[in-house]
Amino acid sequence: MNRVFNHLLLTLVVLALCSCATYPINPQLRQYDPQSGYRFQNLQAPKNSDSLFVILTFSGGGTRAAALSYGVMEKLRKMKIMWEGEERRLLDEVDVISSVSGGSFTAAYYGLFRDELFDPGKFEKVFLYRDIQGELVAGLFNPSNWLRLASPTFGRIDLATELYDREIFEGKSFRDLSDMKLRPFIMINATDIAMGSQFTFIQDQFDLICSDLNGVHVARAVAASSNFPVAFSTLTLNNYAGTCGYKEPSWMKEALKDFIINPPRFNRARIAQSYLNHEEREYVHLLDGGIGDNIGLRGPLVGIRSNDLPWSLPNRINLSEQDTNKIRKVLVIVVDARTDPKTSIDKSPSGPGLTAILDIIASVPMSNYSFDTVQLLLDTFTDWQKDRAVYAGCKAILQEACPGSEMPDKPPPPLETYGIYVGFDQLQNPKERDYFLNLPTTFALPRESVDKLREIGQFILGQSEDFQRLCSDLKCHE
User: Fold this and answer.
1) Which end of the chain is flanked by fewer CB atoms within 10 Å, N or C?
2) Which residues are 477's β-sheet partners?
3) Longest C-alpha distance within the chain, in Å?
4) pLDDT value at residue 463
């Protein structure tokens, strides 16, 4: 009888321990305040001129992506420019970094620790040259974690979060980023699997679910951003919508009035509004940011092409000539560590296995989609230049026909744009290109591969025509 009782007691203890394990709960926002929290408008730029606006986007791809983006950052740190009568590092002019998956490790570390990123004893040691993947696997096979993993509210992604928090990001939260009040604005992106849409760890996004981002650890955002399907469980956030007095912005109300006028804007508003329905969406489940946008450019494109975001470029470009916040040059650097691995699946009559299918679904379609996104950016810059050319042409015709007449509208402001894509496809050497396009997506790469990625990131950026044009305009030197 005692033996049965002991077994029953042990079972109850195990069940109790399992039920206690849960994911870290994102804190509730007591009162919505559009002026507080981690937002672009709350960040200062003591060494950064508003007139040169620089956006970086870092793609997914595990350590491969982190190392390639790290190499680009090293190049920006080396480059000195002359702007607004001062010499400064090009890196100090970066205003926004938008990242997904592997690129989020580099972005988040720089956001938190700034130039410590380049200290060989820091980021290189805790991430780039480290077998993070091996440590993640070891955590899964550690018996001390088995009871927690048996809980329905604690998964593999939560173990990963603990590792990143302890070993890489030193327990820092978004409050640390908020308190620093410094640009660049770090936009860490995951994917909301219910909507198939981008979910960004910024306070504007967390306002929708009435949650205080300041209480969320940065490691949790990076874990969500690099949360590869199947390998990890989804990362869960609580939705407290309707409890903090949140007020929908005017753009959202306008966008929902008519689908025909602007379908992409309507869809963004529809997705944003879905979070406000707490009864239908009590929780938000997140996966890898690369599923929705593998180069992290879609979010910044909204700021570049519309007036909907607080840091909207059109608004800042159209300021008066006397305003020191007026943008005169825009630089966007897209760092894409996409791969194109060789495959033999088309040589066999039998279909690929589940692992191969998942890998293809998670990477190939988004890689193809990324090229369209980059082209949309370049087309936007071309359209801006065309607008100025058309205005100048019309003004010349008017002056010839009616000397002394004035154009009815103000001219588009003078603006220089530079759109740069850093990707392996740009390598001219076939053997070299093939090497990088076949590097695996993993959180453990040989030191030699990491070193090559750092070097090639700097090389591709330096070879870009737009980068060379920028350097000519700004008198760059190392």
Assistant:
1) N
2) 80
3) 109
4) 96
